[in-house]
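hi! just following up on the protien thing from before. the input was this:
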Amino acid sequence: MKDQFGRRIDYLRISVTDKCNLRCTYCMPVEGLEWVPRDELLTYEEITEIVRQMADMGLERIRLTGGEPLIRTDLPDLVRMLSSVPGIEDLALSTNAVLLPRFAGELRDAGVRRVNISLDTLRRERFEELARRPPRFFDATLEGIEAAEATGFQPIKINTVMMRGLNDDEFGDFAAVTRDRPWHVRFIELMPVGRNLHLTERFIPASEMLERVAALGDMEPVEGPPGNGPARYFRYPGAAGTVGVITPLSHNYCDRCNRMRLTAEGGLRTCLFGEHEVDLKTPLRETGEIRDAVRRALAGKPERHYLQLGSDRGSGGLAALSEVGG
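and the predicted 3d structure came back as:
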């Protein structure tokens, strides 16, 4: 699959639900959103058929996202179905890890090989402020990361949205963890959408993040772990993990974009922050065929996004990042 700019598209992020068991400040309003009705969600069989047809067109890599994907019932069943699709070479999961202790082994056996875990603080007392859930959820997240290590997921990437005055005093704490643990910590810029614009003053640009990482001393640039992301990585000498910086706002890396996103209700979104979305659910349910719709999506994929700090212009109409899994 190639888009109108000649970029090869071989990676699909699949949102299996828009719901989440956390309410992270930058991702979802505390009261939640108007959820997608259950009968409007794609079934596991429909998701698998979409992947099968797109694999025939060149799709190779999948990431399951949410909301929080593990709150969707029997997610390992979907993983088993997708793992059996010819042509799919990589199947990964993005999660907050709260439910991972329960599902890690089954997900690994079903075919998940890599996990990205959201964790914005290493301080138990701070978790409630950032995730708007009691500290026991923080305990569950750490247990989930330990379960991922014990189960053999590699690499384990920790996604941390850094916000001025909220958690930016933890750069050193997160980096220090990578000396001994096989974690690949990625510091991520805040991404402005409709319901998190009140956090604009908390934004930390990539240039400052890189300066603060450099100030930690001793780290050298490295290639980083395998995956599909655009992070720049650094490592302490002899460290088990790495430290990365992801810059969706201040540095546009759209020229290397290889992905599209399937929403929980069946829209093929060609850019996380773009207006362009093609309905796959209707043709799938009416005719069983979605290839022409995928080709239309590829033909309309924009060249880049146009996010603007302090404004929801360029955010593709998103109210919250949880709607499409980031």
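The domain at 11-323 is CATH 3.20.20.70 (TIM Barrel).
Residues 135-151 form the longest helix (17 residues).
cheers
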